[in-house]
Amino acid sequence: MEWTLSVTQLNEYVRKQLASDPVLRSLRVSGEISGIKKYASGHYYFSLKDEGARVQCVMFRQNAAALNFTPADGMRVIAKGSASVYVRDGSYQLYVEELQAEGIGDLYRRFCLLRDKLASEGLFDPSIKRPLPFMPKKIGIVTSFEGSVLHDIVTVGWNRYPNMRFILAPCAVQGEGAADEICASIEALNRLTDCDVILCGRGGGSLEDLWAFNEEKVARAIRASRIPVISCVGHETDFTIADFASDCRCATPSAASETAVPLKKALLEELGHYAKRIRTSASRKINTEEKMLELYQNSHVLKNLSQAYVQPRVTELGEFARRTKTAAFNMIRNASVELQAYSARLGALKPEAPLEKGYALIERDGEIIDRINGLKSGDLFQLIMHDGKRKAVAGERYEDG
Amino acid sequence: MMVREKQWQVKDTKMDDRDMTYEEGLEKLKDIVAALESGKLSLSETVKSYEEAKMLLKTLNDILEDGKRRITLIEQDGSQTDISDMIK
Protein backbone atom coordinates (compact mmCIF):
# COMPACT_ATOMS: atom_id res chain seq x y z
CA MET A 1 0.00 0.00 0.00
CA GLU A 2 1.32 3.41 -0.94
CA TRP A 3 1.26 6.38 1.42
CA THR A 4 1.39 10.03 0.55
CA LEU A 5 3.12 11.90 3.33
CA SER A 6 3.58 15.55 3.97
CA VAL A 7 7.19 16.66 4.48
CA THR A 8 6.52 17.16 8.16
CA GLN A 9 5.09 13.67 8.43
CA LEU A 10 8.19 12.23 6.73
CA ASN A 11 10.59 14.03 9.00
CA GLU A 12 8.56 13.08 12.05
CA TYR A 13 8.59 9.46 10.95
CA VAL A 14 12.36 9.37 10.53
CA ARG A 15 12.77 11.06 13.88
CA LYS A 16 10.62 8.42 15.57
CA GLN A 17 12.54 5.64 13.84
CA LEU A 18 15.86 7.05 15.07
CA ALA A 19 14.49 7.68 18.51
CA SER A 20 13.47 4.07 18.83
CA ASP A 21 17.03 2.93 18.07
CA PRO A 22 18.73 2.20 21.39
CA VAL A 23 22.22 2.96 20.04
CA LEU A 24 21.29 6.39 18.77
CA ARG A 25 19.41 7.23 21.98
CA SER A 26 22.58 7.19 23.99
CA LEU A 27 26.02 7.21 22.41
CA ARG A 28 29.53 8.61 22.64
CA VAL A 29 31.19 10.16 19.58
CA SER A 30 34.84 11.13 19.26
CA GLY A 31 35.92 13.95 16.94
CA GLU A 32 37.43 17.44 16.53
CA ILE A 33 35.38 20.56 17.18
CA SER A 34 35.02 22.87 14.20
CA GLY A 35 33.09 26.06 13.57
CA ILE A 36 31.89 26.40 17.14
CA LYS A 37 29.52 29.27 17.96
CA LYS A 38 27.97 30.22 21.24
CA TYR A 39 24.68 32.03 20.93
CA ALA A 40 23.30 34.61 23.29
CA SER A 41 20.81 31.99 24.43
CA GLY A 42 23.76 30.04 25.84
CA HIS A 43 23.48 27.16 23.35
CA TYR A 44 26.55 25.90 21.50
CA TYR A 45 26.38 24.93 17.82
CA PHE A 46 29.34 23.19 16.19
CA SER A 47 30.51 20.31 14.03
CA LEU A 48 32.38 17.24 15.07
CA LYS A 49 34.70 16.00 12.41
CA ASP A 50 37.36 13.45 11.66
CA GLU A 51 39.39 12.83 8.51
CA GLY A 52 36.40 11.56 6.57
CA ALA A 53 33.18 13.15 7.81
CA ARG A 54 31.47 15.71 9.97
CA VAL A 55 28.23 15.88 11.91
CA GLN A 56 26.23 18.86 13.16
CA CYS A 57 25.99 19.17 16.92
CA VAL A 58 24.03 21.26 19.37
CA MET A 59 24.59 21.59 23.08
CA PHE A 60 21.84 23.34 24.99
CA ARG A 61 22.46 25.88 27.69
CA GLN A 62 21.53 23.69 30.65
CA ASN A 63 24.12 21.12 29.53
CA ALA A 64 26.71 23.71 28.48
CA ALA A 65 26.56 25.27 31.94
CA ALA A 66 28.05 22.07 33.39
CA LEU A 67 31.16 22.21 31.17
CA ASN A 68 34.47 22.49 33.01
CA PHE A 69 36.28 23.94 29.95
CA THR A 70 35.51 26.24 27.08
CA PRO A 71 35.17 24.25 23.91
CA ALA A 72 37.05 25.73 20.96
CA ASP A 73 37.82 24.90 17.36
CA GLY A 74 40.48 22.28 16.91
CA MET A 75 39.83 20.54 20.22
CA ARG A 76 39.49 16.80 20.15
CA VAL A 77 36.53 15.80 22.31
CA ILE A 78 34.23 12.94 23.20
CA ALA A 79 30.59 13.99 23.00
CA LYS A 80 27.93 12.06 24.90
CA GLY A 81 24.32 12.43 23.81
CA SER A 82 21.72 11.29 21.31
CA ALA A 83 21.32 11.53 17.56
CA SER A 84 18.02 12.79 16.29
CA VAL A 85 16.35 14.54 13.39
CA TYR A 86 15.69 18.25 13.40
CA VAL A 87 12.24 18.08 11.85
CA ARG A 88 12.15 21.59 10.46
CA ASP A 89 15.31 21.13 8.37
CA GLY A 90 15.11 17.39 7.80
CA SER A 91 18.66 17.08 8.99
CA TYR A 92 20.00 14.91 11.69
CA GLN A 93 22.24 16.13 14.42
CA LEU A 94 23.88 15.19 17.63
CA TYR A 95 22.24 16.49 20.80
CA VAL A 96 25.24 16.73 23.09
CA GLU A 97 24.65 16.37 26.81
CA GLU A 98 28.22 16.02 28.00
CA LEU A 99 31.52 16.99 26.44
CA GLN A 100 34.89 15.66 27.46
CA ALA A 101 38.17 17.06 26.23
CA GLU A 102 39.98 14.07 24.84
CA GLY A 103 43.05 16.00 23.98
CA ILE A 104 43.48 18.73 21.46
CA GLY A 105 43.44 18.57 17.72
CA ASP A 106 46.63 18.53 15.71
CA LEU A 107 46.32 22.05 14.38
CA TYR A 108 45.27 23.41 17.72
CA ARG A 109 48.20 21.68 19.40
CA ARG A 110 50.61 23.20 16.87
CA PHE A 111 49.01 26.58 17.45
CA CYS A 112 49.51 26.30 21.21
CA LEU A 113 53.10 25.07 20.90
CA LEU A 114 54.11 27.88 18.56
CA ARG A 115 52.29 30.49 20.64
CA ASP A 116 54.09 29.33 23.79
CA LYS A 117 57.46 29.18 22.03
CA LEU A 118 57.21 32.68 20.56
CA ALA A 119 55.82 34.06 23.80
CA SER A 120 58.78 32.68 25.73
CA GLU A 121 61.07 34.34 23.17
CA GLY A 122 59.45 37.65 24.03
CA LEU A 123 58.00 38.14 20.55
CA PHE A 124 54.62 39.16 21.98
CA ASP A 125 55.95 41.46 24.71
CA PRO A 126 53.89 44.64 25.01
CA SER A 127 57.17 46.55 25.43
CA ILE A 128 58.29 45.86 21.85
CA LYS A 129 55.02 46.90 20.26
CA ARG A 130 55.49 49.93 17.99
CA PRO A 131 53.16 52.88 18.51
CA LEU A 132 50.57 53.47 15.81
CA PRO A 133 50.78 56.78 13.96
CA PHE A 134 48.25 59.34 15.06
CA MET A 135 47.76 60.66 11.56
CA PRO A 136 49.03 58.26 8.86
CA LYS A 137 49.75 59.83 5.48
CA LYS A 138 49.62 56.53 3.65
CA ILE A 139 48.31 53.14 4.78
CA GLY A 140 49.67 49.81 3.52
CA ILE A 141 47.33 46.84 3.12
CA VAL A 142 48.41 43.21 3.07
CA THR A 143 45.54 41.03 1.93
CA SER A 144 44.23 39.37 -1.20
CA PHE A 145 43.15 41.43 -4.17
CA GLU A 146 39.92 39.43 -4.23
CA GLY A 147 37.45 39.27 -1.38
CA SER A 148 35.74 41.91 0.69
CA VAL A 149 38.62 42.77 3.03
CA LEU A 150 40.22 45.36 0.73
CA HIS A 151 36.84 46.86 0.01
CA ASP A 152 35.90 47.00 3.70
CA ILE A 153 39.16 48.66 4.73
CA VAL A 154 39.08 51.27 1.96
CA THR A 155 35.38 52.07 2.31
CA VAL A 156 35.55 52.52 6.07
CA GLY A 157 38.79 54.49 5.67
CA TRP A 158 37.39 56.90 3.09
CA ASN A 159 34.28 57.42 5.17
CA ARG A 160 36.43 58.56 8.03
CA TYR A 161 39.02 60.43 5.98
CA PRO A 162 37.92 61.15 2.41
CA ASN A 163 41.40 61.85 1.01
CA MET A 164 43.26 58.97 2.69
CA ARG A 165 45.77 57.15 0.50
CA PHE A 166 46.18 53.36 0.54
CA ILE A 167 48.74 51.09 -0.99
CA LEU A 168 47.94 47.43 -1.52
CA ALA A 169 50.58 44.70 -1.55
CA PRO A 170 48.43 41.80 -2.70
CA CYS A 171 48.98 38.23 -1.49
CA ALA A 172 47.19 34.92 -1.11
CA VAL A 173 45.66 34.63 2.35
CA GLN A 174 45.03 30.89 2.43
CA GLY A 175 46.38 27.73 0.94
CA GLU A 176 49.84 26.65 -0.15
CA GLY A 177 52.41 29.45 -0.17
CA ALA A 178 50.11 32.01 1.46
CA ALA A 179 52.41 32.52 4.45
CA ASP A 180 55.38 33.27 2.15
CA GLU A 181 53.32 35.74 0.15
CA ILE A 182 52.16 37.52 3.31
CA CYS A 183 55.78 37.85 4.44
CA ALA A 184 56.88 39.13 1.01
CA SER A 185 54.10 41.75 0.98
CA ILE A 186 55.02 43.06 4.42
CA GLU A 187 58.64 43.22 3.35
CA ALA A 188 57.80 44.95 0.05
CA LEU A 189 55.78 47.65 1.82
CA ASN A 190 58.74 48.30 4.11
CA ARG A 191 61.25 48.39 1.29
CA LEU A 192 59.35 50.11 -1.50
CA THR A 193 56.83 52.48 0.08
CA ASP A 194 56.57 55.27 2.60
CA CYS A 195 53.38 54.10 4.27
CA ASP A 196 53.32 54.62 8.04
CA VAL A 197 51.07 51.74 9.12
CA ILE A 198 50.22 48.33 7.66
CA LEU A 199 46.87 46.55 7.93
CA CYS A 200 47.29 42.79 7.50
CA GLY A 201 44.47 40.30 7.48
CA ARG A 202 41.65 38.36 5.88
CA GLY A 203 38.00 37.49 6.46
CA GLY A 204 36.65 34.77 8.71
CA GLY A 205 37.02 31.04 8.14
CA SER A 206 37.93 27.77 9.76
CA LEU A 207 41.17 27.22 11.62
CA GLU A 208 42.54 25.65 8.46
CA ASP A 209 41.54 28.68 6.38
CA LEU A 210 43.26 31.04 8.78
CA TRP A 211 46.31 28.84 9.12
CA ALA A 212 48.73 31.01 7.14
CA PHE A 213 48.39 33.62 9.90
CA ASN A 214 49.47 31.00 12.43
CA GLU A 215 52.78 30.34 10.70
CA GLU A 216 55.96 31.27 12.52
CA LYS A 217 57.44 33.10 9.53
CA VAL A 218 54.47 35.48 9.37
CA ALA A 219 54.85 36.30 13.05
CA ARG A 220 58.56 37.00 12.48
CA ALA A 221 57.89 39.11 9.37
CA ILE A 222 55.45 41.20 11.37
CA ARG A 223 58.05 41.81 14.09
CA ALA A 224 60.77 42.49 11.50
CA SER A 225 58.65 45.23 9.91
CA ARG A 226 59.89 48.78 10.44
CA ILE A 227 56.32 49.97 9.95
CA PRO A 228 53.81 49.13 12.70
CA VAL A 229 51.36 46.37 11.78
CA ILE A 230 47.70 46.08 12.70
CA SER A 231 46.34 42.54 12.34
CA CYS A 232 42.75 41.76 11.47
CA VAL A 233 42.24 38.08 10.85
CA GLY A 234 38.81 36.48 10.71
CA HIS A 235 36.10 37.31 13.19
CA GLU A 236 35.85 38.47 16.77
CA THR A 237 36.44 34.99 18.19
CA ASP A 238 39.37 34.05 15.99
CA PHE A 239 42.81 34.56 17.46
CA THR A 240 45.94 33.82 15.42
CA ILE A 241 49.66 33.92 16.08
CA ALA A 242 49.78 36.97 13.79
CA ASP A 243 47.39 38.72 16.19
CA PHE A 244 49.74 38.09 19.12
CA ALA A 245 52.76 39.26 17.12
CA SER A 246 51.20 42.40 15.64
CA ASP A 247 51.41 45.85 17.21
CA CYS A 248 47.66 46.04 17.48
CA ARG A 249 45.02 43.35 17.01
CA CYS A 250 41.65 44.26 15.60
CA ALA A 251 38.73 41.85 15.41
CA THR A 252 37.83 42.62 11.80
CA PRO A 253 39.24 44.50 8.78
CA SER A 254 36.64 47.24 9.28
CA ALA A 255 37.70 47.66 12.89
CA ALA A 256 41.35 47.81 11.78
CA SER A 257 40.52 50.59 9.33
CA GLU A 258 38.72 52.49 12.07
CA THR A 259 41.76 52.12 14.29
CA ALA A 260 44.26 53.23 11.66
CA VAL A 261 42.32 56.04 10.00
CA PRO A 262 41.52 59.12 12.11
CA LEU A 263 38.17 60.81 11.78
CA LYS A 264 39.02 63.85 9.67
CA LYS A 265 35.92 65.73 10.75
CA ALA A 266 36.97 65.40 14.37
CA LEU A 267 40.51 66.60 13.57
CA LEU A 268 39.17 69.65 11.73
CA GLU A 269 36.79 70.35 14.61
CA GLU A 270 39.68 70.11 17.02
CA LEU A 271 41.71 72.59 14.96
CA GLY A 272 38.71 74.92 14.83
CA HIS A 273 38.38 74.61 18.56
CA TYR A 274 42.01 75.61 19.06
CA ALA A 275 41.68 78.45 16.55
CA LYS A 276 38.78 79.77 18.61
CA ARG A 277 40.67 79.44 21.88
CA ILE A 278 43.67 81.25 20.39
CA ARG A 279 41.52 84.09 19.16
CA THR A 280 39.62 84.28 22.43
CA SER A 281 42.70 84.29 24.62
CA ALA A 282 44.59 86.75 22.40
CA SER A 283 41.67 89.16 22.19
CA ARG A 284 41.05 88.75 25.91
CA LYS A 285 44.62 89.83 26.53
CA ILE A 286 44.20 92.85 24.29
CA ASN A 287 40.87 93.70 25.89
CA THR A 288 42.46 93.47 29.30
CA GLU A 289 45.19 95.86 28.22
CA GLU A 290 42.61 98.23 26.78
CA LYS A 291 40.53 98.11 29.94
CA MET A 292 43.62 98.85 31.99
CA LEU A 293 44.37 101.80 29.80
CA GLU A 294 40.79 102.99 30.09
CA LEU A 295 40.97 102.51 33.82
CA TYR A 296 44.05 104.66 33.99
CA GLN A 297 42.48 107.30 31.82
CA ASN A 298 39.34 107.41 33.90
CA SER A 299 41.15 107.20 37.18
CA HIS A 300 40.69 110.02 39.66
CA VAL A 301 44.35 110.79 39.53
CA LEU A 302 44.56 111.18 35.79
CA LYS A 303 41.13 112.72 35.40
CA ASN A 304 42.13 115.42 37.89
CA LEU A 305 45.54 115.59 36.47
CA SER A 306 45.36 119.39 36.07
CA GLN A 307 44.40 119.94 39.68
CA ALA A 308 46.50 117.19 41.08
CA TYR A 309 49.56 117.51 39.01
CA VAL A 310 49.64 120.24 36.42
CA GLN A 311 48.20 123.04 38.51
CA PRO A 312 50.75 122.76 41.26
CA ARG A 313 53.40 122.74 38.61
CA VAL A 314 51.95 125.81 37.01
CA THR A 315 51.79 127.46 40.38
CA GLU A 316 55.29 126.41 41.10
CA LEU A 317 56.40 127.67 37.75
CA GLY A 318 54.64 130.99 38.32
CA GLU A 319 56.33 131.31 41.66
CA PHE A 320 59.62 130.59 40.08
CA ALA A 321 58.95 133.12 37.37
CA ARG A 322 58.01 135.73 39.91
CA ARG A 323 61.07 135.01 41.91
CA THR A 324 63.17 135.18 38.84
CA LYS A 325 61.62 138.46 37.92
CA THR A 326 62.18 139.81 41.38
CA ALA A 327 65.67 138.63 41.32
CA ALA A 328 66.23 140.20 37.98
CA PHE A 329 64.62 143.42 39.14
CA ASN A 330 66.74 143.54 42.22
CA MET A 331 69.75 142.86 40.18
CA ILE A 332 68.96 145.66 37.82
CA ARG A 333 68.14 148.02 40.65
CA ASN A 334 71.36 147.20 42.41
CA ALA A 335 73.19 147.67 39.21
CA SER A 336 71.62 151.05 38.68
CA VAL A 337 72.45 152.08 42.22
CA GLU A 338 75.97 151.09 41.57
CA LEU A 339 75.85 152.85 38.30
CA GLN A 340 74.63 155.98 40.01
CA ALA A 341 77.50 155.75 42.41
CA TYR A 342 79.85 155.42 39.55
CA SER A 343 78.19 158.24 37.76
CA ALA A 344 78.57 160.46 40.89
CA ARG A 345 82.17 159.55 40.94
CA LEU A 346 82.43 160.25 37.26
CA GLY A 347 80.65 163.53 37.85
CA ALA A 348 83.31 164.42 40.42
CA LEU A 349 85.89 163.96 37.74
CA LYS A 350 84.34 166.71 35.51
CA PRO A 351 86.82 169.58 34.93
CA GLU A 352 84.12 172.10 35.84
CA ALA A 353 83.41 170.40 39.17
CA PRO A 354 86.19 172.31 41.14
CA LEU A 355 84.83 175.62 39.76
CA GLU A 356 81.72 175.02 41.81
CA LYS A 357 83.86 175.01 44.89
CA GLY A 358 85.17 178.48 44.01
CA TYR A 359 88.11 177.69 41.75
CA ALA A 360 88.60 179.56 38.41
CA LEU A 361 90.26 178.72 35.09
CA ILE A 362 92.44 181.11 33.20
CA GLU A 363 92.22 180.94 29.50
CA ARG A 364 93.88 183.00 26.81
CA ASP A 365 93.15 182.61 23.13
CA GLY A 366 91.33 179.23 23.80
CA GLU A 367 94.28 177.82 25.81
CA ILE A 368 94.28 176.99 29.48
CA ILE A 369 97.06 178.85 31.22
CA ASP A 370 98.47 176.55 33.92
CA ARG A 371 101.75 178.38 34.77
CA ILE A 372 102.23 181.79 36.33
CA ASN A 373 104.75 182.76 33.65
CA GLY A 374 102.12 181.98 30.99
CA LEU A 375 100.98 185.59 31.36
CA LYS A 376 102.98 188.82 31.17
CA SER A 377 101.96 192.06 32.83
CA GLY A 378 99.30 193.73 30.79
CA ASP A 379 98.04 190.52 29.03
CA LEU A 380 94.32 190.23 28.44
CA PHE A 381 92.79 186.83 29.47
CA GLN A 382 89.51 185.18 30.39
CA LEU A 383 88.62 184.24 33.92
CA ILE A 384 86.25 181.32 33.86
CA MET A 385 84.14 180.57 36.89
CA HIS A 386 81.40 178.00 37.28
CA ASP A 387 78.65 180.50 36.39
CA GLY A 388 80.27 182.63 33.71
CA LYS A 389 83.36 184.36 32.22
CA ARG A 390 84.98 187.74 32.81
CA LYS A 391 87.63 189.74 30.94
CA ALA A 392 90.69 190.39 32.97
CA VAL A 393 94.15 192.05 32.71
CA ALA A 394 97.26 190.53 34.21
CA GLY A 395 99.09 192.75 36.77
CA GLU A 396 102.68 192.61 38.01
CA ARG A 397 104.05 189.19 39.21
CA TYR A 398 104.62 189.07 42.97
CA GLU A 399 108.30 188.89 43.82
CA ASP A 400 107.84 185.97 46.28
CA GLY A 401 105.38 183.98 44.05
CA MET B 1 59.00 79.47 33.70
CA MET B 2 57.55 76.45 31.97
CA VAL B 3 55.65 78.72 29.69
CA ARG B 4 58.83 80.45 28.65
CA GLU B 5 60.60 77.20 27.85
CA LYS B 6 57.75 75.98 25.72
CA GLN B 7 57.73 79.27 23.92
CA TRP B 8 61.34 78.71 23.01
CA GLN B 9 60.61 75.24 21.76
CA VAL B 10 58.00 76.62 19.47
CA LYS B 11 60.39 79.26 18.21
CA ASP B 12 63.27 76.86 17.68
CA THR B 13 61.38 74.34 15.59
CA LYS B 14 59.47 76.87 13.57
CA MET B 15 61.94 76.54 10.74
CA ASP B 16 61.16 72.92 9.94
CA ASP B 17 57.39 73.19 9.95
CA ARG B 18 57.30 71.27 6.69
CA ASP B 19 58.93 68.17 8.16
CA MET B 20 56.92 67.94 11.33
CA THR B 21 54.24 65.33 11.79
CA TYR B 22 50.64 66.25 12.44
CA GLU B 23 51.01 65.02 15.99
CA GLU B 24 54.08 67.17 16.68
CA GLY B 25 52.32 70.20 15.24
CA LEU B 26 49.27 69.56 17.36
CA GLU B 27 51.39 69.28 20.50
CA LYS B 28 53.03 72.61 19.71
CA LEU B 29 49.67 74.17 19.08
CA LYS B 30 48.39 72.89 22.44
CA ASP B 31 51.46 74.40 24.15
CA ILE B 32 50.82 77.80 22.58
CA VAL B 33 47.14 77.69 23.48
CA ALA B 34 48.04 76.82 27.07
CA ALA B 35 50.56 79.68 27.16
CA LEU B 36 48.07 82.14 25.72
CA GLU B 37 45.33 81.06 28.08
CA SER B 38 47.61 81.30 31.11
CA GLY B 39 47.44 85.08 30.63
CA LYS B 40 51.04 85.30 31.72
CA LEU B 41 52.43 86.44 28.37
CA SER B 42 53.12 90.07 27.75
CA LEU B 43 51.18 91.85 25.05
CA SER B 44 54.00 91.50 22.52
CA GLU B 45 54.49 87.81 23.40
CA THR B 46 50.75 87.35 22.99
CA VAL B 47 50.82 88.84 19.53
CA LYS B 48 53.87 86.75 18.57
CA SER B 49 52.32 83.53 19.91
CA TYR B 50 49.08 84.28 18.16
CA GLU B 51 50.91 84.62 14.83
CA GLU B 52 52.77 81.35 15.46
CA ALA B 53 49.55 79.55 16.33
CA LYS B 54 47.95 80.85 13.13
CA MET B 55 50.88 79.50 11.09
CA LEU B 56 50.65 76.12 12.85
CA LEU B 57 46.92 75.91 12.24
CA LYS B 58 47.50 76.53 8.56
CA THR B 59 50.25 73.88 8.38
CA LEU B 60 48.09 71.30 10.17
CA ASN B 61 45.16 72.07 7.96
CA ASP B 62 47.41 71.68 4.91
CA ILE B 63 48.47 68.24 6.16
CA LEU B 64 44.84 67.21 6.56
CA GLU B 65 43.92 68.41 3.10
CA ASP B 66 47.02 67.00 1.46
CA GLY B 67 46.51 64.72 -1.51
CA LYS B 68 43.62 62.93 -3.16
CA ARG B 69 42.08 59.58 -2.25
CA ARG B 70 43.94 56.82 -4.01
CA ILE B 71 44.72 53.12 -3.83
CA THR B 72 47.95 52.03 -5.39
CA LEU B 73 48.67 48.41 -6.17
CA ILE B 74 52.29 47.54 -5.61
CA GLU B 75 53.88 44.40 -6.99
CA GLN B 76 56.88 42.55 -5.60
CA ASP B 77 59.12 44.11 -8.27
CA GLY B 78 58.04 47.56 -7.10
CA SER B 79 55.84 48.43 -10.09
CA GLN B 80 52.83 50.50 -9.05
CA THR B 81 49.36 50.83 -10.56
CA ASP B 82 46.55 53.16 -9.55
CA ILE B 83 43.47 51.02 -8.85
CA SER B 84 41.36 53.70 -7.18
CA ASP B 85 38.60 53.29 -9.75
CA MET B 86 38.15 49.67 -8.84
CA ILE B 87 36.82 50.49 -5.38
CA LYS B 88 33.47 52.22 -5.31
Structure description:
Chain A has helices spanning 7-19, 22-25, 61-64, 106-121, 148-160, 178-192, 216-224, 241-245, 253-260, 264-298, 300-303, 305-348, 353-356, and strands at residues 27-38, 44-49, 54-59, 75-86, 91-104, 138-142, 165-168, 197-202, 229-233, 248-249, 361-364, 367-368, 380-385, 388-393. Chain A is an alpha/beta fold. In chain A, the strands form three sheets. Chain A has a five-stranded mixed barrel. Chain A has a five-stranded parallel sheet with strand order 7-6-8-9-10, with helices on both faces. Chain A has a four-stranded antiparallel sheet with strand order 12-11-13-14, with no helix packed on it. Chain B is mainly alpha-helical. Chain B is 58% helix and 9% strand. Chain B has three helices and two strands. Chain B has helices spanning 2-12, 22-38, 43-65; strands spanning 70-74, 80-82. In chain B, helix 1 (2-12) runs antiparallel to helix 2 (22-38) and helix 2 runs antiparallel to helix 3 (43-65). The model of chain B is unreliable at 1-16 (pLDDT under 50). The chains are: A alpha/beta (401), B mainly alpha (88). Chains A and B meet through helix 5, strand 7, helix 6 and helix 10 of A and helix 2, helix 3 and strand 1 of B. Strand 7 of chain A pairs parallel with strand 1 (70-74) of chain B.
Blueprint of the fold:
The complex is a heterodimer of chains A (401) and B (88).
Chain A: H1 7-19, H2 22-25, E1 27-38, E2 44-49, E3 54-59, H3 61-64, E4 75-86, E5 91-104, H4 106-121, E6 138-142, H5 148-160, E7 165-168, H6 178-192, E8 197-202, H7 216-224, E9 229-233, H8 241-245, E10 248-249, H9 253-260, H10 264-298, H11 300-303, H12 305-348, H13 353-356, E11 361-364, E12 367-368, E13 380-385, E14 388-393
Parallel strand pairs in A: 3-5, 6-7, 6-8, 8-9, 9-10
Antiparallel strand pairs in A: 1-2, 1-4, 2-3, 4-5, 11-12, 11-13, 13-14
Helix pairs in contact in A: 5-9, 6-7
Chain B: H1 2-12, H2 22-38, H3 43-65, E1 70-74, E2 80-82
Antiparallel strand pairs in B: 1-2
Helix pairs in contact in B: 1-2, 2-3
